[in-house]
Design goal:
alpha/beta; 12% strand; Rossmann fold; seven-stranded parallel β-sheet; 7 strands; single chain; globular
């Protein structure tokens, strides 16, 4: 078969040239993507978040990624409103932030997001937002996951309700509460914390994966809806981070600490609508979507997921 093809190729230099040109185009496109990624993760300057407003609001701000993001926003000069359900933890995080950044203001608000559909809870949030006024950054971080993989029909009904309220309803409600002010001022950033679970089929973790898919579609639609009003709406896509939610207690190159992840996340605030801000996570996602199965499997095995 190959013997019959070779003479026809030799007799058709145009085909050879077309194949060479196609190869050059593919290689050039890949090179441009690599250069763009290098700029994004290593050279691009972070935005001055104070230009978007004086306050950052973080839900789920007493542990893990949420706490680290609140700390990093304060490091960048923003006042911070912390929302969570446990008063003592809120006070501890406030004290920690003020110890490192004594010039910023830190407010706390007890919110049980399991009751986010209660009108009194929403009224309490709105009252606080009206008082601090100039919200420049909202981080919708609060969330809950499965304790262990489980068939959907066996999954605890109350746990499923919590996933819907914490992962979906809370982001929708908080976004709706801050958008009028941001749209009026024509500036602001809303960051929705998604998950790599939105980018793959995850049997036995169906409710969690689906909730994060909602977050990304919600973000993509709103980003276009409010682009003309100069409100930036983003979803960040973390893979594993060493937090209580992931049940991983150690950090590594592939599994960063919350602080390491938060620095990468804040450095990418105000840019792409959808991004994995920690570059090793972006590489993992790219491998998962584009690499041969044997290679992506090898990488997942190496990092333990």
């Amino acid at each position: 078969m190959f013997a019959s093809i070779q003479p026809s190729l030799a007799a058709s230099p145009l085909i050879v040239k077309l194949c060479a040109a196609l190869g050059c185009l593919v290689a050039s496109r890949l090179a441009l993507k690599l250069l763009g990624s290098f700029y994004t993760f290593f050279l691009r300057p972070a935005k001055d978040l104070r230009h978007f407003g004086a306050w950052g609001v973080v839900t789920g701000a007493t542990d893990g990624i949420g706490k680290a993001l609140a700390m990093e926003l304060a490091n960048k000069g923003l006042n911070v409103l912390l929302m969570s359900r446990t008063l003592q933890k809120l006070e501890d995080v406030r004290a920690e932030i003020l110890a490192k950044n004594p010039t910023v203001q830190v407010e706390i608000l007890i919110v049980d997001f399991d009751h986010i559909d209660d009108s009194s809870v929403r009224a309490s949030i709105l009252k606080t937002l009206d008082r601090i006024q100039d919200v420049g950054v909202l981080v919708n971080n609060v969330g809950v996951a499965y304790d262990h993989p489980e068939f959907f029909h066996q999954f605890d009904e109350h746990r499923m309700d919590s996933i819907i309220k914490l992962n979906i309803t809370s982001a929708s409600v908080l976004t709706r509460l801050v958008l009028p002010g941001m749209a009026q001022r024509k500036r602001g950033i809303i960051l929705n914390v998604s998950s790599a679970s939105a980018h793959t089929v995850l049997p036995l973790l169906t409710g969690y994966s689906a909730s994060k898919k909602y977050i990304e579609q919600f973000t993509l639609c709103l980003a276009e809806e409010y682009r003309a009003k100069n409100v930036v709406i983003q979803a960040h896509v973390p893979m594993f981070v060493a937090t209580k939610l992931s049940q991983i207690s150690y950090s590594s190159f592939w599994v960063p600490s919350p602080d390491t992840y938060a620095r990468a996340a804040v450095a990418n605030l105000g840019y792409e609508t959808l991004i994995a801000p920690y570059w090793p996570h972006a590489l993992q996602l790219w491998l998962g979507e584009n690499a041969p199965t044997w290679l992506s499997t090898k990488v997942r095995t190496a990092i333990g997921c």
